[in-house]
Design brief:
The chain is globular. It has a single domain, classed as TIM Barrel (Alpha-Beta Barrel). The strands form two sheets. Strands 1, 2, 3, 4, 5, 6, 9 and 10 form an eight-stranded parallel sheet that branches. It has a two-stranded antiparallel ribbon with strand order 7-8. Helix content is about 35%, strand content about 15%.
């Protein structure tokens, strides 16, 4: 099967839809200089593809901030504070919960938001992306008071109703098999998962990538996927800011 033939299931679903497909792209763990981040930003520019970068405030290096500012397609979200694990014994990794002191968490999140707002001004969207896509319910309740308007996690679990002033804008398709050795699952599987999500929903569907663990074999396939999404008039690859008001 050629790479482009792997997209056939996605094309069929898109052809059958009555309404345009709405998608958005998030990439996690930005902040430190890395060749893969440079490659990702170049890919976004090449396809004029909006990408929401989840930036760890405590990791942010000046050259990285410059590179992001020089990529018009990039919007910045806040990826926790320092990507530290505060899980208790037997718990899954979590920064925004676990044994962390809530007052300290609130102060760190505020400091992170203020730093990203200073660095990126209008290119920063006040959306929190919890490391490992996990956040305690009591921390969610704090977010509107800390200046956040959105929360973006993996589309699973039940955090209960969002507090007033906070919307969820989740991601649904991850091309990394984290339990299978952090393996790139391949274009055919990515297309099939996107097709499955788009066949059953008119809400925005989020693709989440992870440049730090994206191997060299994946970039050409990601380019082929973006080529399809940007080339079809019935696909809207949206900026995160344009989706914030209608997320749910």
């Amino acid at each position: 099967m050629t790479n482009r033939a792997a997209l056939a299931p996605l094309r069929r679903v898109l052809d059958a839809r009555a309404q345009p497909a709405i998608l958005w792209w998030r990439d996690d763990d930005a902040g430190r200089a890395h060749p893969n981040l440079d490659r990702l930003l170049a890919l976004a520019r090449a396809f004029a593809a909006p990408v929401a970068l989840a930036v760890v405030p405590a990791w942010l290096e000046a050259p990285v901030a410059d590179a992001i500012r020089n990529c018009p397609e990039a919007t910045v979200l806040q990826h926790g504070w320092a990507h530290l694990d505060h899980a208790g014994p037997g718990e899954r990794r979590i920064e925004l919960g676990g044994r962390a002191d809530r007052a300290r968490l609130a102060a760190d999140l505020t400091a992170g938001r203020e730093r990203l707002a200073r660095e990126f001004v209008t290119r920063f969207a006040p959306i929190l992306v919890p490391p490992w896509n996990r956040i305690a319910r009591d921390v969610v309740a704090l977010l509107p008071g800390l200046g956040f308007r959105g929360l973006s996690i993996w589309d699973e679990g039940d955090l209960g109703p969002m507090p007033a002033g906070l919307v969820r804008l989740d991601v649904h398709v991850d091309p990394i098999d984290w339990r299978g050795g952090r393996r790139w699952i391949g274009l055919e599987a990515i297309a099939a998962r996107l097709a499955d999500r788009l066949a059953g929903s008119d809400r925005p569907i989020g693709l989440v990538t992870h440049h730090l663990v994206t191997g060299p074999e994946a970039w050409d396939e990601l380019a082929i996927l973006l080529e399809l999404l940007r080339g079809r008039p019935d696909v809207r690859l949206m900026t995160v800011g344009s989706l914030l008001g209608g997320a749910g």
